[in-house]
Amino acid sequence: MIFINFKAYREAFGRNALELAKIAENVADRSGIYIAVAVNYLDLPLIARNVSIDVFAQHVDAVEFGSFTGSVNAEMLKEYGARGSLINHSERRLTLADIDFCVNKLRALGMNSIVCTNNVSTTSAVSALKPDFVAVEPPELIGSGIAVSKAKPEIVENAVVSAKRICKDVKVLCGAGITNHEDYVRALDLGADGVLLASGIVKAKDQKKALEELAGLL
Predict the structure, then answer these.
(1) For the whole model, what pTM was predicted?
(2) Number of domains comprising the chain
(3) Which one is catalytic: 59, 89, 212, 213?
(4) Regarding beta strands 84-87 and 133-136, do their DSSP bridges make them parallel or antiparallel, or are they unpaired?
């Protein structure tokens, strides 16, 4: 499983975002690998309408409908075609109570939750909330080009063990520094179900080639 977070990169908004999502769709079809994208709120409706792969939001607020200026809740995301959302990314941290709210709200709406964590103990705590996915990403390695599966393999191994011990159905993603097929395979060998990455694909000079290499097509 490969999840690509477009973040707020210039290379992945508007027309560029749709082009990259179509590349992901094409590579998913040819490789047989589940590939999904997480895009910004403005691009989400357009991309969800024009690709067959799952499209996720990058964040969801722990609110119902009401006087919450600037907030986007899970119902809004579903209305515009999101399959689910990232929660608690290192760049959008939430309290445990808010994470719990978002996981339960998405579940009630038939949507998927991907909760980001930064270490084994946080992964254990979050797994008790029974999200669909936990994505382990040591912040110091995000965007570094140094894969956590190589630099700190014990984090991935221990996170998988602790998460599955608490919730056997939760899927574990490996994030931070993932850039190539070797990183992807190494993450799977360590027990992860897939990877979550951003700059390794989004900021590549040739996005299509980078994703094809990651998926083992080259």
Answers:
(1) 0.92
(2) 1
(3) 89
(4) unpaired
The predicted-structure confidence for 153-180, as pLDDT tens digits, reads as follows 777 788 888 888 999 999 999 876 677 8
Residues 6+ apart with CB under 8 A from 120: 136, 155, 158, 159, 162
Length of the chain: 218
Q: How far apart are CA 125 and CA 163, in angstroms?
A: 9
Q: How far apart are CA 12 and CA 145, in angstroms?
A: 19
Token pair belonging to 152: 């700190």
Tell me how far apart the alpha carbons of residues 162 and 125 are, in angstroms, rounded to a whole number.
9
Whole domain around residue 125: which residue ranges? 2-214
The chain-wide mean pLDDT, for the chain, equals 91
| 89 annotated active-site | yes
Neighbours of 218 (CB within 10 A): 11
CATH number of the domain residue 14 falls in: 3.20.20.70
Q: Which residues contact 122 (CB under 8 A, 6 or more apart)?
A: none
Q: Please list the residues that pair with 112 across neighbouring strands.
A: 84
